[in-house]
């Protein structure tokens, strides 16, 4: 290989790396912007950027006011989310029918998970608002199966949202 060919190859490689970095940086900026909008609650009903408004057809259960999916970042095996059909940020803004439909699904999900995974217990909860840890401003209920040994210190359960207050001592 001649010096000119080597220089050309190096130049081409540098150009490719530059383009890859530009694309990656652009993607990261868009993701950061999207995440900021999601966390701030700046979304319209059925906003195309809301991941829970997008129905990919993978619902395990579907009802008039809610559907159930597996969490894409599960805390434990079988972690499921019950999503309101209507885009609403706060649980307290749901209609009574929507609330009832979502809580009815908690019971159905429990029966389903008992058969599928035989967990030893459950944590069920709703994060409402950024201070609670809600990262996607679309109402959803977490149903998290628990298994003996999945954590060394399960006592305190949902009290663990504030670790310093988890203990009863």
UniProtKB/TrEMBL annotation:
A motif (Histidine triad motif) lies at residues 138-142. Gene3D superfamilies: HIT-like. Keywords: Membrane, Nucleotidyltransferase, Transferase, Transmembrane, Transmembrane helix. The keyword Nucleus does not apply. One of its GO terms (molecular function) is ATP:ADP adenylyltransferase activity. The keyword Iron-sulfur does not apply. Its EC number is 2.7.7.53. Residues 60-153 form the HIT domain. The chain crosses the membrane at residues 6-24. Signal peptide: none annotated. Pfam families: HIT. PANTHER family: AP-4-A PHOSPHORYLASE, HIT FAMILY HYDROLASE. This is AP-4-A phosphorylase. It comes from Pandoraea pneumonica.
